[in-house]
Amino acid sequence: SRVISYECCPGYEKVPGEKGCPAALPLSNIYETLGVVGSATTQLYSDRSNLRPEIEGPGSFTIFAPSNEAWASLSAETLDSLVSNVNIELLNALRYHMVNKRVLTDDLKHGTTLNSMYQDLPIQIHHYPNGIVTVNCARLLKADHHATNGVVHVIDKVIATTTNSIQHIIETEESLETLRAAVAASDLNSLLESEGQYTLLAPTNEAFEKIPRETLNRILGDPEALRDTCFLLNHHILKSAMCAEAIIAGLTMETLEGTTLDVGCSGEELTLNGKPIIANKDVLATNGVVHFVNELLIPDSAKTLFELAQESEVSKSMDLFRQAGLSSHLTGSERVTLLAPVNDVFKDGLPIVDSNMKNLLLNHIVRDQLSSKYLYHGQKLQTLGDKELRVFVYRNNLCIENACIAAHDKRGRFGTLFSVDKMLTPPSGSVMDVLKADHRFSTLVAAIQSAGLTENLNRPGTFTVFAPTNEAFRAMPQGELNKLMGNAKELANILKFHVADEILVSGAVGALVRLKSMQGDKLEVSMKNNVIHINKEPVAECDIMATNGVIYAVNSVLQPQASRPQERGDEPADPALEIFKQASALSKVSQRNPRLAPVYSRLLARMKENSGGF
């Protein structure tokens, strides 16, 4: 079990019978206050170094006092160098933590400096938007503890004097030898030794060695993409000084180049773009701070599509493109956009790569390098497989044919990566072409032809068709089915209720979408337990794409609320006899079915005159 104990804040005490700690204690001098606020080690060293008389006496001081844990975390070598010469080294170190005036947290403005009491050397202050305050990158743990002769702030590190610029750190650090050469080649020396406040994410020699030589040569040898080495290094420089204490999970940091880096956490380690790569942090400089990183941060704009995909949830798609022999389109200088299904699409395994699959994958590569923010509804895109794909913009999604964009696009050197939620299905003919080619819809095809609606579903358009399967017609009561098939006008009315004059793919369906049918009544399309429903009936198959629409297979015949099948003994016969003969031949199985055979017979006997279209 966990025990939670409460303590009074420094300077206050409990009163018997009262809640909290209401009694304020008299102020003490700075020396005595150090012992109260959890900095007894600083108090001890103040005594040893002969600083005590000064911080006990009159004056107005501010001391940034390292916590007991901060002193304990110093290396044995550093601590020994201080305590072995208490009257000089230790005293100077403590005086560097002091300012000769009272400074409260509200006075600690971001980007300012305070003159310390050791040779007036500057102390850098950063006050970040998230409320974190740092002093030479040491975080304020306990702030604004008043004393009779000043104020005490407890910090989490022992701070050291800073006299070197970022450029000087690069020049003197052995592990940054390769970076040193790259900085010299890119003429960034003057920037990194100039006044200002920057953060350098400094790639170590190890970081450069991890990059395949071919990749590094390609990047550094592409002046248009990288404008020499400068572009790559600017991706490692932030526009402001960011101490590690202020870098929190979920933060997006802007680089000098204008690109962004995503910061997160992996356990207790900070991550950049998802990787725990910070090797040494908070090396303070006069013009900012340096964090050593053990991987080179290559911007997306310098990467190939394959390199972009390695950092995204589309690795299985890349395996498919590689097996299909399409790697050259994704690694070369061809301007393309890749529609890559996310890994979840292949949770049951990758499909076999044959000639048909290769053609399908070619239709996942769009000619030209696109950006999703410029796509518009009805836009046509040409693929390397010579197919034309349509763009659909919905309230809750952006889709290309049946595949909807599942993540922000990544723009590389020549190609853009769109992660999509399913394999693309390019259209392969009109609605009527698709229905005729699928034996499940032979009865529907016959009904459409007998109702005189064939031409309408062949013309250019934007239809969503909820197509009843043969099973749907077989499920109808025999008498009702006979009446419907024998009444061309009513049949046309029912069929129009299955068609809407706008394209709705499944990825655009939220809790509920209402479409106006061609018959006039509303159709309600909803998503329940990851299954699309139409008028509360589950859909058997979604997103069967056609050049003029999209088809959903349904195993029931939908009925308008106000519509009832009526017996019509004197209805003029429909003339679609020959059409129906051709349509009925589409499915020998359906003709032989004992329930559907009378329907065909009835239609054949009564069709003489064509009835209205849409």
Automatic annotation (TrEMBL):
<keyword id="KW-0272">Extracellular matrix</keyword>
<keyword id="KW-0597">Phosphoprotein</keyword>
<feature type="domain" description="FAS1">
    <location>
        <begin position="301"/>
        <end position="424"/>
    </location>
</feature>
<keyword id="KW-0732">Signal</keyword>
<dbReference type="InterPro" id="IPR036378">
    <property type="entry name" value="FAS1_dom_sf"/>
</dbReference>
<dbReference type="InterPro" id="IPR011489">
    <property type="entry name" value="EMI_domain"/>
</dbReference>
<feature type="domain" description="FAS1">
    <location>
        <begin position="27"/>
        <end position="159"/>
    </location>
</feature>
<feature type="domain" description="FAS1">
    <location>
        <begin position="163"/>
        <end position="297"/>
    </location>
</feature>
<dbReference type="GO" id="GO:0007155">
    <property type="term" value="P:cell adhesion"/>
</dbReference>
<keyword id="KW-0677">Repeat</keyword>
<dbReference type="GO" id="GO:0050839">
    <property type="term" value="F:cell adhesion molecule binding"/>
</dbReference>
<feature type="domain" description="EMI">
    <location>
        <begin position="1"/>
        <end position="23"/>
    </location>
</feature>
<feature type="domain" description="FAS1">
    <location>
        <begin position="428"/>
        <end position="558"/>
    </location>
</feature>
<keyword id="KW-0130">Cell adhesion</keyword>
<keyword id="KW-0301">Gamma-carboxyglutamic acid</keyword>
<keyword id="KW-1015">Disulfide bond</keyword>
<dbReference type="GO" id="GO:0030198">
    <property type="term" value="P:extracellular matrix organization"/>
</dbReference>
<keyword id="KW-0964">Secreted</keyword>
<comment type="subunit">
    <text>Binds to type I, II, and IV collagens.</text>
</comment>
<dbReference type="InterPro" id="IPR050904">
    <property type="entry name" value="Adhesion/Biosynth-related"/>
</dbReference>
<dbReference type="GO" id="GO:0031012">
    <property type="term" value="C:extracellular matrix"/>
</dbReference>
<protein>
    <recommendedName>
        <fullName>Transforming growth factor-beta-induced protein ig-h3</fullName>
    </recommendedName>
</protein>
<comment type="function">
    <text>Plays a role in cell adhesion. May play a role in cell-collagen interactions.</text>
</comment>
<dbReference type="InterPro" id="IPR000782">
    <property type="entry name" value="FAS1_domain"/>
</dbReference>
<dbReference type="GO" id="GO:0005615">
    <property type="term" value="C:extracellular space"/>
</dbReference>
<dbReference type="Pfam" id="PF02469">
    <property type="entry name" value="Fasciclin"/>
</dbReference>
